[in-house]
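LOG
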Amino acid sequence: MATETNNVEGSAAARLLQQHAENPLRVTVEDVPDEDLKSPSAADAPEKSSWGQTVSTKAAGKQPARDSGSLDTQSHEAFPELGVPKAAASKSNISPIWGGAKGGANGKANGTSWSANGTPRTSTPASGVSTPTGVPPSMSIPGRNVEAVVLEQQYILPRNQLKRPIPDIVKDINRKSRAVISMVPGPNGHLKFEATGPQDKAQQALRDLVQQIGSKTTVRVPIPQSARAHIIGKQGSTIKSIQEKSGAKIQLPKVDESAGNVDDDDDAIIDVIVEGNAISAAVARNEINKIAGERSANVNTKLKSIPIEFYPFIAGPNNRLASALEAEHGVQVRVPPHQPWSASVPQVPAAGQRPAFAAPSNDNYIQLAGERAAVQSARAAIERQVQELQNQLLLDQVEIRQGTHQFIIGDRGIPNEDFFADTNCVVVLPSTPGVDTVTVIGRADDVNAGLEKAMDLATQVHTSVFDVARHHRIASGGAPAYSRDISRYLRQRKEIERLEKLYQIHINTPFSEGIVSPWELYAREGKNALKAQKEMSSIINSHPPSRLATVPVDPFFHSYLRSDVRPTVQNDFGVNLIVPDATEGDIPVLLVYEGATTPEEAYQVPQKAPTAAELAQFQRGLSDARKHILEILNHQEQVSTETLEVPVKYQEKLRRFIKKEQDATTRAAGDIPVRVSVRGTTVTFRGPASSVESLSKKAAVFVEQEKEDEKERGFILKFDFPQKFANHLIGKGGSHINELREKFDVDIQVQNGEVELKGPKAKSDRAKAHIASLARQWADETNHTLKIEPKYHRELIGAQGSQIHRLQNRYGVHINFPKTAKPGKDDESVADAASEAGKPRKQQGPDEVTIRGPKKGADEARDEIYSLYQYLKDNSFTASVGVQQKQLPSLIGSGGAGMDELRQTTGAKIDIPNDRNEAPGAIVEILIKGTKAQVAAAKKIIEEKKAVFDETVTKTVEVDRKWHKNLIGPGGSTLRDIVIKAGGPEDRRLQARTIQFPKQDTDGNSIRIEGRHDVVDKIIASINAVVSERASQVTDTVEVPVEKHRSLIGRGGEAKRQLESQLGVSIDIPRQGSGLTAVKLVGQPANVEKAKEHISSIIKEQQGETIQVPLKYHHAISDNGQFFRKLRNEHKVTVDHAGHAVPSKPKPSTTRASNGALPLITDDVEAAADAHSWTIVDTASTEDGEIPWVLKGNTDNIEKAKRAITAALDQAQKNSTIGYLILPDPSTYRHVIGQGGSKVNSIRKQSGCKINVPRDQARDEAIEILGSKEGCEKAKELILQAVRDGQAGRRE
């Protein structure tokens, strides 16, 4: 059934208003008096009321003129509501659905009722005084109500379609309901039904009746498109509620279906389709109109048909006309500013015709916002103004060199608004290169003035030319090609843009194939053009043709070169790659040599002519880069092109198929994807031959399959689906059902426990199988609600939901934590979700966490979350300690070391807030978290440090800088002693904070002391004492021979430190090699004198005695220094040689190789024992002369040392021989040593020789025997015998 409308010109909103004005809502369902309270005059009337044939004039005026052949969907008589008084309908387009016959406050019934003679009475006035009818007023008993409905014959099912006769149906409902229905036949097959009883029961009884006897009706309800989202409601809640309340089925057009034929602003009209019986359709229609009326009071409209050239005329100079329009109509008017630059040049009309102006092609429209009626009024005013402009405006054109256009309008010209204010004309300038036509649009009296203004502005410019070819006339590709390439390069490097800004000029670089076109320079001041030309000459000279090269490349590879090859060529070869844009046509790729650059440095275009060496370098770099690019391209497949004819309706599906196919194949393999373009019904594939062939074949198969599927689009498959899973199937905002539609290419609708699939049978079967499997999966779903304190939610969720995502992925469940309640937006819904999303969700408590999913996964996820929850409870004890903000650096430590140590020590988590307060006494709360013991330990430590810090004071003491070094002491020793003795910290890091000296590069003598009050006072006292003591010190020297300095210093300075501590002075000994003998003593006078005496006595004791030892026996006696150590350890006597050189030590051969052939290892033990190498060497030196041995020590010890030296000298004179014994098997050396060295010691005693058995026998070392010649021979025999005995014992 179609809605009857008049053909009214104007906007869609105006037509909707006209419809409602011509077909206002009317009510025919009336209130009737209670049958139990009939008036006396009505008692004589027939038992059943008859239908009156006449109505009053007022009532008749309310009846609409209808065409019997069509259905008026706005008619309340055709679609009645139960119990709606007509008075209400006359006041508003929105009427209550239900009404009753209850009396008003004065006891009189409001509304109309059927009179005893069958004539409907007129509506009562607002006062409640009714028109006299000759009968007393009716009364209403509380709890008793009469509801009535009138049905025309066309809305009643034919008799053959009724399951039972209507009277039987009425009796059945009366038997089951607490209301009583009576039926009154009327003319033309009309039936009137009255229900008596409680209001809700009476209304329900009539609904049940109409549900059984009423015919199905389809109604179209026109609404503004802006009200669509409000009709749907959040996730379909509103439309679901209307459907449940009315019993009608409501369908809204999808956005993509209505987008092609309606505007996208608030003024667009769409039709809502309502299906149901007479009552349900009327109820649903009224609810929809009510929402539309409430939600569409304010509108936002775009005027899309107005040419942009009209905008300045509509807005007026300085927007005066638009402001006046706003004030007059009370709306907001936005007129976009006119843009003078246009890609197309307006066409001059033929003689006698008006110019044609096109509507804007972009989204740059005039917008109106405000109340609907005001917007419509303002729109009408603008449309009238547009019509006037269509009849008034003319255009004229003039050819002006394009380079000067920018001096007409723009940054270098005048503002567009000023041009319009001066001339009352708009100017249109071409943006297409090479077009010089300037167009001026205005009224007949203004156009000439506008042209004059444009020409004046353009001719006030200095014009000059710059011949690029003059600098390099001999170019390999010709002068025109060089001019083109150098301009491309300079524009890519934004060098021309820089020159234009620097000199306030415009540079035009025209190009014509085969023709040398000079560059054009336009400037307000001629000298700026001259300056620019000078710099341009330097740039051109620095870029000769040899610095540029070109490579012809198929445009298909341009994007690949730009993204993948260009960075490599720049880094590896120092060549900049300029790839043509799509707008530049078929020109080659340009290569320009720039040299090595770093990413950190912006490249500066050179302005110096290159040398011969540089020119050669250019050629090498360009040649290598060109070769590299050609090698890459030669490895690519040949580019081919194929086309496919595809009807428009399949192109979007084909586009999605191609994208999915290339993502899975070409792009996944890192290859260059095929480029696909569409023009009309022709789809073009261009790319590597194999890829094009494969993709085009797949696309052809896909399109053919779509054509076959199109034949089955009418196939419908319905099956039952659990209603409780409908929301799951639809998904949030319809996301899931839309995904399934796209996946299976079928339309899917969910309604009242049934899924309807519409599409090809095979695809519908696959979709059905998938949806059925989802139902089975959801049927296994289990829901758990966990009670978890909100304070643990954040940690359970994890950073950015990481913890929950892990659990959801592991167990295949959905875990939902409570969120802060936020009001929903009506427009978040979709029409597809309308039928199932109406039920409100259960409110989730703030301490409730829900888990939904398969039973096994849900149970495991629940157990793991509870485990994590318990862990957090056990480890989530917290405490806070407030500390002064200025204490934080000491708590945190250098690089966070102090806080890290505290965390490691206690195991607690400690958080210090980042926010800082600038107040001097600001307190910062440190949060501690962990187990109970960890929190307690960390809190205790921080509170102890806090107590120390709170007691901390800072004082300064003035000390002359000359004493600072003394206070610090060697390595800070004096400073440490002062701090520790005062009770300060032992940690060196804290000690540095306790006493702070001024820096070397600063002035002042102040020493800053920080710590507890008592500690600071003690440190200051110690400093003062040290300074006082140092101030009273004296300095003296004592002469000490250079050779005695070492004895004063001692090993590692130990002797010096002992003397300083013992004597209470500071001792400064001259550096070694300086030749100075004065040792400086600093201290108290008494201590200095005491130290001088003590050092003098030490020197005197250490004068020593010198004895002469023959040079040839020096090494024999010293025994590699062991004899000197023996004297020092046993007799406290040291030996030096008074500066004399020690004689060189003889170097006998000690290796096996020195004696020629080595003894062989054999299996014969006797032979092995006798096989050896033996060498005798006389150790007595042939060097004549003596060497002094200076003995230092006390007198008694020196005498003892002298006796020991004499004995050693006698022994050395006897031990003048050394023997080297080498055995064939190094493993036999152990027999020489014996257990614990017993055997070698026995040999030493028997032979009177010194014997040295090497530790590492594997290195071919010999056994050394030192003694007399006879003793050495004897020792050798004893050693060989020991070896034979050892091997014999091992054999046994």
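LOG (cont.) second protein
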Amino acid sequence: MNEEETGLHEEKYDPNENNVEQIDRFDANKLARHRPGVLEKSSKFDFAARLHDAREYFRGCCAKCGLCQGDPDASTSEEAPPRRYIYWGPEYDVHDNPTHDNQTTVRSPHLEGEDNDDFVHHGSKFVSNYISTTKYSIITFLPLNLFEQFRKKANLYFLIIAILAFTDLSPKSPVFSVTPLSIVLAISAVKEAYEDYKRYEMDKEINNRQVKVCRPDANGADWKFREIPWEEVQVGDVLKITKETRAFPADMLLLQSSTNQGLCNIETANLDGETNLKIKQAVGATYSLPTDEDGDLYPFNRKLQFQLECEAPDENISKWKGALYFHGEKDPVAVGMNQFLLRGCTLRNTDWIIAIVVFTGVQTKISLNNKQSAFKRSNVDVIVDTVLYFIFAVQQILCIFGIFAHLVWLEEEATNEWYQYIESDGSTQSDFGDMAALNYFTFLVLMDLFVPISLYVSMEMVKFSQAALITFDRDMIEEIENEIDEKDVTRVHAQARTSNLNEELGQVSFIFSDKTGTLTENKMEFLRCHIDGVRYGPGEMEKQHEFMERIRTPEGMPPFDDRKCQFSDNRLAHRLKANENKIIDEFVTLLAVCHSIIPEYPQGRDGPVVYNASSPDEKALVVLAKNVHYYFFDGHVQILEFPGVKQQIDGHRFYVDIFTEKHQFDIYNMLEFSSKRKRMSVIVRDPRDNKMKLYCKGADNVIYQRLREDYKPKGNNEKLANEWNKTLESLQLFAADGLRTLVCAYKEVGDEEYCSWMAKLSKARAAIQNRDILVEECFDEMEQDLTLLGATAIEDKLQRGVPDTIANLAVAGISIWVLTGDKVETAINIGRSCRLLTGKMNREERSLYVIDPDEKMEDTECEEVVRKAFKEAWEFLEGRQENDPNQGFVISGKALSHVFPHRKHDAKGREIPPTQAEKEKEEEFQRQILQILQKCRAVICCRVSPIQKAQMVSLVKQNVDGVITLAIGDGANDVPMIKAAHVGIGISGQEGLQAVMASDYAIAQFRFLQDLLLVHGSWDYRRISVLILYSFYKNIMFSMTQIWFSFYSGFSGTLFYDQFSGSLYNLFFTALPVLLCGVFDRPYSKEIAKLCPELYDNGPKNESFNLKIFGIYCFEGVMHSVIVFWTAVEFMDSMTVGSNGHVVGFWVTCTTMFTSIVLIATFKMMLETRTWTLWSILSFAISLFLWYLWLAVYSVLPLKAGFSNQDIYYVPIVGMGMPQWWFINIIACVLCLAPEILYKYIKRMYVPSRLNVIEELEINAERRKRFIAEIHTYQQKERQIEHEQHEEDAATGKQQHLGFSEFQIGKDHPDYVMSQHRYMNLAMKKPKFVLKNLLKKKSDKNKNAKANAVHTTSTIEEETGQEPVADD
């Protein structure tokens, strides 16, 4: 639709009217104009910065050693950090620069206090705009990676062993000690290099993006906009951002735009996840200057000469202040966040903007919020370290025992064995004490396999493979449709950006989630409304018996959009067309004009309109108006005049097509929405009756206070009072459905009244002190005596599957906290929509406790308010149980600013630490808020900054013992939170690049979190646990045989096995089965994992890997070593071979024992395997085949070949020819494994655990099918009961919340079984036996819980004849 068709012409700014040819350009003389340092390319590799990073890394790792001290030059001053000064224009040229004779030099930016000649000519050394998220560089990779590798105790231990192997004390060749360690380090280094290279590739793509900057050529002449990479942008550069480049490479001050009055629209989705557009406007002193159509001449306007003074960089993304000092002007022009453009945002609906760079690189606000994260290690890794300490201690005890045992043997047996102690000169050794002491190192090398060297490399390989399975999981692929072209579909896969934390996904106790873009799609849909006593919405026509067909779309107007509007009540459009009710007309007119939306036509005027809104609520309202044929199709900023008002008014002009009649609405004033006002109004001239009107929409309690007295009980107007009561009933119904509600009202404004009010408003806006208060008072004065129009109900569109996901995660025992930058009311509404907040949580009873101090309150006053609020909250909650399912808590960022204050920075941008008094005050606030929040089931933190999100996560992480935290978000403002948590998840889709880059794992939608945790996390935790326990078990069994042999060898340190074979024990003979188990084994299917989320609690409770279980496996390894050693010694040693009387030797016995160990280790892995496939069977077969192949080949290799096989030359051939060989192998396996098989059988059949029952279901297809069908049937019954209860509450007027929040109760709560009977009673069906005694014990613990579940239990018993049993 073009302007000729509408008959309306937009009065827009025309740059040609300013006579561009006559612009007074300060470069007209074409003199060379140098700017020091501008042409120097920023170094891609800043060695000093990297050295500093490495130093900080080592300092963090070795803080306790005292070697890494703080920077002696670091400022400890509490003075405010220096401000920075940035210049543009000829007035700030430096004429006396000796290096540029007869030329002028543009003055470079500098910091406060830097007024000497050096900085006048060369400026400050500001940081470059190069951004790096990598851990290593080419130079630092080797030392940092080796340091990181040797932080692992086992690797450090084997380094010591490798060094000892080169001495005469070692019983082994150094080759067999160094080679395994080198292989382990190399595999880990390759994996780390690969993952870091992927991060480097992403950094490279961002740093090499192109942007236009105003710079001269190499000779300092020919200034124009030139394209350079982002990494070369510097402070003070003037950039031109176009709709092609869009993204902002640095923090900038807006100077000019292609639209009228310096306006531009920006999208912050990559920053905070919101797809709604924000409006920024340059100050009049810069946007009023003439320029050409493309803006290329704008930087050279002689009137554009200023000094920008602004504050130092800080992490507060919602606050920035500066002042522009223009040449010839006495007073500065204040600039703030309305002109400030943050890195990470993008330009929308604007052809181009021109801005000057203020902060670059790591000093941008979003980078300052990205605190350097420490190396993340999983909880299992930490337990492994503890286990290794125990192993090392036992090993030292055995080594010391070997010293004394060998000394005793020498004292008693050395005389008989004198020939072993003759020196090279013929003398005899006599100092037995020294000999025994040196034997310590021999035993240390001898028992190196006591610690499994293959453990870490096996874990690295398994984790890498697990990460690949996450990445290629087809169930975690999201298809995203283009809003304009439905056929344009993008497939987004899950990403495992690190593999170190796979098992951590199976142990999460707390989830910290962002709201916008994470829980929601940030898409609102208009569902219902109430107008003039009538309720409209889906199903309302049928209920009120007023069914009407959809009205035919008027010619030339857009048709009803079913995809974007679910409002299916056709009565509203019919009544609007008939124009039978003024209230309905005014209501829809309000929806069409009371907003700040900008329409866009991506496919041209003939294509569909796309509404770009700063609020998704506004967009939903305007879409509804369009679908009932009040079509808002165009709008722009417009300077308006009003008779009786002296000054011009910066207003807007909106164009609305009402049933094919086009109307021009002039918006004189927008009374903006704020969290304090909770309403928005516009003052508009209605062209249909030429009257001035005020349209107002806002929260019900706020609008009610401003209605005419006739609507209130004292008004004595029964009709209008009843109208409000009916509206209130509809609001309660809408709220019960979790919808976001607004009340709409209007009034007519007389011309004289408006002129008088504008005079007051102009005076208030000119005030220096209390400006905001005076303006708000003017707004409030106008918004009085309103006439009620009706109410709207909007659904904040949650992502698909969010309520079910939250329910499943809650049943799994995970607590979910929401940390968002949104206002309190918005976050509460979302909390109710996603069933995080229950209907029992309300402000009146303080079961939903809200602390939300005024944002404009002074810090000192606010601190006292917060202190008092915390005290009152604790007094109210002190007697409550932990995680009370009926208690919610909401706190705003203003309150949290006293718990986690914003830090000041010194001249070098480093954080200034707090004083001792400040630190104590902060710690007290933190202690109070933590103990308060631990009493609440649902917690929402609103208006929080990115750094406050991270601090909240750290508060729980560091002060609540034994928990694993997970943070999930989609925007750059979630990056600090993601990095602070044990596990960070980024939402990847069309936006959210920053969050993905900083995350450990990335998924496309929140609902995939249950796949990531309940499926992959739970599986991987069990897999890694088996891998670790099995690795220690088989190595202890192998190593302890050497100890038993020492009783026969006088503790001399003689090897009891071939050293080449021993070095391959971990790497080849027992490696393959455990690797395949670690990657593919699973105790239950993905479907069962999501239907029975209770199975997940195995991880948070550390039930698969803990010190107790480790002790059991160690004991088992020791006992099995005893069996395999003495069976070999007793049945094989000194046995005769054939009839010639030959006796088997030492090496036949040890080879027989080695074979038994390999067999037992393989069969043990078979017992640990839960899922049997052809691949697992093949792995076991290959493992055994490799051992026998090795014996057959290695033992017959020629001795001259140099394979050191002289000890077992033809020994296996002799041994395998003896019946005793095979008998010993069989009897050893039976004696070792039979008790474990018997124990597992009895436990599984007589005292089955929850997992045992699920495993039985998995191998019984018919029972599994019936089990799943019963769960689905029960879920349907639950939903039916929920729906019926909802209808009953709607009929009775009760405002009771229904949904999944009833499942979010603690497991110690009396009602816990009520949440469990949805799954548990179905899952706990025994395979064969009934355990009434066990059930009785369970019921005695909680009779009330059993009574609530008895109906479901009896139903199952009737169908199956079996009873459910509890987990042991």
